[in-house]
Amino acid sequence: MPSADPRPLLGEPVSLDLLNTRWMSQGSLQDLLTSADGLRVWLGSNSLTGLLQDTPEGIEATLNALLSAREALAAAVDSPGDPDAARRVDAVLAHGRLRATLTPEGPSETAEFDDPAWGPAWTAAYDYLRLLRTAPDRIHACAHQDCVLHFFDTSRNGTRRWCSMAGCGNRAKASRHYARSRDEHS
């Protein structure tokens, strides 16, 4: 059984959640995807455990595919419209496709992968396309200077700035308050 997810921000769409497998803790960059246990935690948090070939080779291949996808998505999110970033995401997407079918329940789509190890990576890259179709202006990096997390802004007016108001938002407000009080007493 994998351990609890240690990351400070959970529940984002799978593409951004993959980016959020790196986070800052006490001034140090953390990375969930450095071990099989971390991989299992991330897959479990995103209901993707069924896509893991749980062998040493399958785990290594899935980790490598996810790391490639994470770098491609980071480039695309940080530099929207960059042709090189788009090519990197496309390279991940080239490992899978959607097959349309008609079932007794109605139309359906099934993801198919050229190698099962690319399933989670492809799923994250495909989710990024969904976010771009839905509301590309709502994909944000946290505004706190020391934070590396990303989020999909679901606020009513689309002005969310922090990954977490309780974390980064509160730290920013405390810093502004400290600077104001220091200036008043100087």
General description of the model:
With 186 residues, this protein is of the alpha+beta class. Helix content is 46%, strand content 16%. The chain has helices spanning 14-19, 36-45, 56-78, 83-93, 119-134, 165-184; strands spanning 22-25, 28-31, 96-103, 106-113, 139-141, 150-152. Strands 1-2 form a two-stranded antiparallel sheet. The radius of gyration is 19 Å and the shape is globular. The model has no long low-confidence stretch (mean pLDDT 91).
Largest sheet: 2 strands, antiparallel
Share of helix, binned: 40-55%
Radius of gyration: 19 Å
User: Low-confidence parts, pLDDT < 50 over ≥5 residues?
Assistant: none
Oligomer: single chain
Q: Roughly what is the average pLDDT, rounded to an integer?
A: 91
For the record, give the distance between the C-alpha atoms at the N and C termini, rounded to a whole number.
55 Å
General form:
globular
**Looking across the biggest beta sheet, what order are the strands in?**
1-2
Strand content: 15-25%
Number of E strands: 6
Run of helices and strands: HEEHHHEEHEEH
Structural class designation: alpha+beta
- Helix count, DSSP H or I runs of 4 or more residues: 6
